[in-house]
């Protein structure tokens, strides 16, 4: 994935996921922190502006970046999925996609129709400026992760929540590939 696309996805997540931050690693080894915290070097809005510049010139202006990672209020689980605990104690899973919101709704609806994934609530947070959406997944009170607002690590219900979230993310990634191929 190009740095320009990573910037778009990070910008969408930083604006939607409370307390999320991004660490930008430069080719020369410097690190910059972006997000809403006062200690950040860049605000989420400044990261969005960088993402927009990178998208316009196919990443040439972002050529100084080696990579970026999300951190802060979100914990990476791998493959672009992040764990967050809401102030209420409810576990959330977050990811971002380049699919437009209506396509995301369709993919999430297809994958959740009548199966265990119906146990999740999905909130789509479109960011039209960077042409990306952040997605927040939460367990429904009656779903497989019900019974505690925050299932302990290692319990099957926490693992089931992660598996369902990864399944929805995988469906979105496949749809992005198909959409990118014009199909």
Notable characteristics:
single chain, alpha+beta, 2 domains, five-stranded antiparallel beta sheet, 8 strands
**Low-confidence segments, ≥5 residues, pLDDT <50?**
143-148, 151-156
Question: Tell me, what's the shape?
Answer: globular
Helix content: 25-40%
How is the main sheet built? 5 strands, antiparallel
Please write the string of helix (H) and strand (E) elements: HEEHEEEEHEEH
Number of helices: 4
Mean pLDDT: 87
Q: Output the structural class.
A: alpha+beta
Taking strands numbered 1, 2, ... along the chain, how are they ordered across the largest sheet? 4-5-6-8-7
Number of strands: 8
Distance between the termini: 20 Å
**Count of all domains:** 2
Sheet-strand content, in percent, reads 25-35%
Task: Compute the CA-based radius of gyration.
Answer: 17 Å
In short:
The protein has 183 residues and is of the alpha+beta class.
Please characterize this protein's 3D structure.
With 183 residues, this protein is of the alpha+beta class. It has two domains: 3-73, no CATH class; 77-180. The protein has helices at 3-16, 44-56, 101-112, 156-180; strands spanning 20-26, 31-35, 65-72, 75-78, 81-85, 91-97, 120-127, 132-139. A hairpin with a 4-residue loop joins β1 and β2 (31-35). The chain is globular, with a radius of gyration of 17 Å.
Strand-helix topology:
Layout: H1 3-16, E1 20-26, E2 31-35, H2 44-56, E3 65-72, E4 75-78, E5 81-85, E6 91-97, H3 101-112, E7 120-127, E8 132-139, H4 156-180
Antiparallel strand pairs: 1-2, 1-3, 4-5, 5-6, 6-8, 7-8
């Amino acid at each position: 994935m190009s740095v320009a696309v990573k910037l778009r996805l990070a910008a969408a997540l930083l604006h939607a996921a409370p307390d999320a931050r991004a660490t930008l690693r430069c080719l020369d080894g410097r690190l910059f922190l972006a997000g809403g915290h006062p200690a950040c070097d860049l605000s989420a809005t400044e990261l969005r502006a960088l993402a927009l510049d990178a998208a316009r010139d196919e990443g040439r202006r972002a050529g100084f970046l080696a990579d970026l990672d999300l951190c802060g209020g979100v914990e990476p689980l791998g493959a672009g999925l992040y764990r967050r605990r809401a102030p209420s104690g409810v576990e959330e899973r977050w990811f971002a996609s380049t699919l437009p919101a209506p396509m995301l709704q369709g993919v999430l609806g297809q994958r959740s129709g009548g199966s265990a994934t119906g146990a999740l609530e999905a909130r789509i947070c479109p960011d039209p400026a960077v042409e990306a959406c952040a997605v927040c997944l939460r367990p429904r009170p009656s779903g497989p992760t019900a019974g505690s607002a925050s299932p302990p690590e290692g319990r099957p219900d926490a693992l089931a929540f992660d598996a369902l979230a990864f399944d929805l993310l995988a469906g979105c990634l496949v749809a992005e590939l198909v959409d990118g191929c014009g199909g």
